[in-house]
Design brief:
There is one protein chain. The protein is an alpha+beta fold. It has two domains: 2-52; 54-190, Sandwich (Jelly Rolls). It has helices at 2-51, 144-148; strands spanning 68-70, 73-80, 89-93, 95-97, 105-114, 121-127, 129-135, 138-139, 157-160, 168-177, 183-190. The protein is elongated, with a radius of gyration of 26 Å.
């Protein structure tokens, strides 16, 4: 009989601890689940804010690019590679597509005018990820650091395009994939050559 009492009291003594641990876990899960929509909403707002000025060529440079000025390009074309019925559409860069589908791929084609001796370091901001980059039919090689920025829709990455450019117009082809939300493409160039 005393063994049964000891056994029962041993089980009972653990019960408050189990109850407290379970309560803490439940409260933690509830708090995390309440914060997750706020995090998603904040992320979406930040993404929209960063992409918002993309269609406004007269707007001031994005706050992330204080040392850069936006490079407006007229006569670019964009085509959805995901939509079989998509036809190339003439657009201006910077470009933003609010109703882009998740996982959609876009092909941008445009001419980049270059004069020998001009600054050749560009800041490319893909929304969301740069998949392919060609100039005059030649694939542009990204360094390891640039590859880290190839999916950075707020800051993008800097690259010196001098080895790929010749005097006059250069045909640029860029493929972008969209993860979620709006999609687009912005280019920035140095205000003052370094």
């Amino acid at each position: 009989m005393s063994q049964e009492n000891n056994s029962e009291s041993g089980n009972i003594s653990w019960f408050p601890y189990v109850l407290v641990v379970t309560a803490i876990l439940v409260i933690g899960v509830v708090i995390l689940s309440m914060n997750e929509p706020k995090k998603q909403e904040a992320k979406q707002e930040a993404k929209q804010e960063a992409a918002q000025p993309a269609n406004d060529n007269a707007a001031a440079p994005a706050k992330h690019h204080k040392s850069r000025e936006r490079l407006p390009i007229e006569g670019a074309t964009v085509k959805s590679l995901t939509d079989a019925n998509s036809k190339p559409e003439t657009v201006s860069l910077p470009y933003k597509k609010d109703d882009a589908k998740n996982g959609e791929h876009f092909l941008f084609t445009f001419n980049l005018s270059y004069k020998a001796g001009s600054p050749s370091v560009y800041n490319i901001v893909p929304d969301d990820c740069l998949e392919k980059f060609m100039i005059n039919g030649k694939a542009v090689t990204l360094s390891a650091e640039q590859q880290q920025g190839h999916c950075n829709w707020t800051d993008g990455f800097e690259i010196d395009l001098k080895p790929y450019l010749h005097n006059g117009d250069n045909k640029v082809t860029i493929e972008i994939s969209n993860g979620s939300g709006p999609s687009g493409l912005r280019l920035f160039t140095p205000k003052n050559p370094e």
